[in-house]
Write a structure and sequence with these properties.
The complex is a heterodimer of chains A (352) and B (270). Chain A is α/β, with parallel strands linked by helices and 352 residues long. Helices cover 27% and strands 24% of the residues of chain A. Chain A is elongated and about 65 Å long. Classes of the chains: A alpha/beta (352), B alpha/beta (270).
Amino acid sequence: MLERSEEIPNHKGIWVFTEQIDGKLKNVGLELLGAGRKIADKLGEELVAVLLGHDVNGLVKDLGAYGADKVILVEHELLKQFTVDAYTKVLAELSIKHKPSVFFIGGTLNGRELAPRLAARLNTGITSDCVDFDINSDGHLIHVKPFGKLMAKIICKTRPQMATAKPNVFKKLEPNWDRRAKIVREEVKINPEDIRTKILGRVEANKNPYGSIEDADVIVAVGKGLCSKENLKLIQELADLLGASVACTRPTVDRGWLPSSQQVGQSGKTVSPKLYIAIGISGAMYHTVGMKNSDIIIAINKDPKAPIFQIATYGVVGDLFKILPLLIDRLKKEVKEVKLRITAKDTQKRIN
Amino acid sequence: MSKAGLKIIVCIKQVPAVQDIKIDPITHTLIRESMPSMLNPWDEIGVEEGIRLREKYGGEVTVITMGPMQAKEAILRCLAMGADRGIIISDKALAGSDTIATAYALYMQIKKMEYDLIICGKISTDSETGHIGPHLAELLNIPQICYVKKVDLDIEKRRIIAHKEADGGIEIVEAPLPALMTTTIGLNEPRLPTLKGIISSKRKEVKVVTAKDLGGSLSNYGLRGSPTFVDEVFEPPSRKPEMIFQGDPKEAVEKIVQVLLNKKLISSRS
C-alpha cells in the first residue's frame, strides 16, 4: 500500500479529470473546471485538466477555453475506451509524479467507479457528491456536501484531496476561445494484461418514454402526493403539453411508479432546468438537493407547511387533482400546437 | 475454487430506516445506536445474488458487516434469507471511520479468508458514496465490476461475465475470478426470509471480530485512520419564494399560466 502523503506543501495544482466518451467531453468535467478555477485562483495554483483517450488532442482547445491553464494529455490505443483498470493506472502514475493538491472527478457512472479506486491506490481521502468548495485558513479544501437534513464541511488531511460532484451541480465558465492551455504530453506504459475487466460488447439503452432528465429544459416532477400509478397519466399529459421530461422522488421509485432513471435527489440525479414543476412533492432535503438550482421552481402541494414552499419560486397551495385537470385544459387552449418557444434539445428525443 | 465450491462474500450494512437521521453534535458522525434500522436495499440484492449463485454452483455465502453490535440484526436477516454464516466487525476503536478506513478494516478481515467473488451494494441509503466496493477491490488488488444488472460465472475458466450499467447503455464485461461486483436495482427481487429460514438462522455462526483481531496498528482504524473528517455541520440556506398562492384552483391555474407566459416558457395562441 502506498504511504499516505501528508506533506502538504509538496502538493500543488488543482486537477480535474475531464472525461471524454467517443471523443466528446462530458459536461461535468467542464463544470468542475469552473469550480476548480475559483479554487486555483484563491490558492494561486495552476488549474490542470487531465485528458485520457486516443486521438483526442482536438479537445485541448476546449479545455483551455473553459478555464484550464494546462492540459496533461495521455493518448494510447488502450485508453480509447474507458476501463477502470487502465484509467486508474494512468491517473495514479500521473498523480504520484506531479503531486497535485486537489483532484476532482465528475460523478458519471465511469467517474464513480474510477474515483474511489484511485483514492484507495493513492491511499488518500475522497469526498463524494460535493456541492460547493472553499479554502479554509489552513489552506485545506473545504468540501461541502449534504449530510442528512443538514450540510457538512469535510476536510481531508492527506493529498491529493479527492472529490466527486454530480453533473449539473457546478456551472461551466463562459468559454473564452482566446484562452490557450499549455499542453503537457505524458507517456504511460499500458499493457493489455493491465486491463482485467474487459468490455466484450455494448447494448444500447432503450428509448426512455419519460424523457432524459439530465439535459431537459423543463421538468415535471411528482412525489408520493400523486397517490397512485394510474394518476401518472395526468403528469404525462402536462409534460407533453410543456415538452417536458418527467422526474420523481425516491418514494415514487420505491413504489414502482417510475424507474430510477427519473429520480432526482441525493440518491438520484441532480438537475438544473429552466423550469421545474414539483407536484405533490413535500420537499425533503433528499429531493431538493437535486433540483434546488433550477432557474424557476413551481410547487403544487396541498400542505401549506410543506418544505418545498421554502425553495419554490412560485408556490400553489391546493389539491393537485383539482388543479392539474384545469391547468391541462387551460394549456391546451393557450399553447400553440404543443410548441415550446425555448429550444428544448430534449423535446425531440421524446417518444410519446 | 476449492472442492467445497464457490466462496462468496457479501458486504452488507445496516442503515437507518427513517430519513430523519441524527448526528452526534461533537463528533459530527451519524448516531447509529437506538435508531430504527434495516438492511441496506442494495446489499439485500447482493445477498440474494450470492444465494442464487450458490444454489446454481454450490458453495458458501458469508455475509460481513462493520458497525455497532446492533448491526447483528442485519446479519441475522441475511442468514434467514439463506446465507451460511456471518461476521460482524465491531469495536469502539472503529467509530468515525470514513470510507477509506472502513474499506481498510474490511480488507484486513477479508484478506485472511478464501473467496472467489465479493459482492457489495452499489451505494448505501445513508451515506450514498458508493466508495466501499471500488476501495475494497483496489486494496485486495482484484478486478471490479460496478452496477451489475445481470451476472453469471464461467466455473471452468474461472471468470465472471456481467451486464453492467454504463453511460448511454449496457456494457457486457468479463473479468477473472476472484473479482468484486456491485449490485444495482433490477439485478433480482430479494426473497423474504421463510419461517424455516428464520429458525435455522439462529443455529448459524456469527463471528464477532474486534480491531485487535483485525491486526496491524490501531492508528489505521476509526477516526484516527480516516483521511477525511466532518469539520462542521450547518443548516442549508433557504431561498425566498416570490409568490405563494392559496385559494381557488381556477385562480391558481391562471397564476401558473401567467408565470409560464411571462417567462416565455409557453407561447400564447393570440
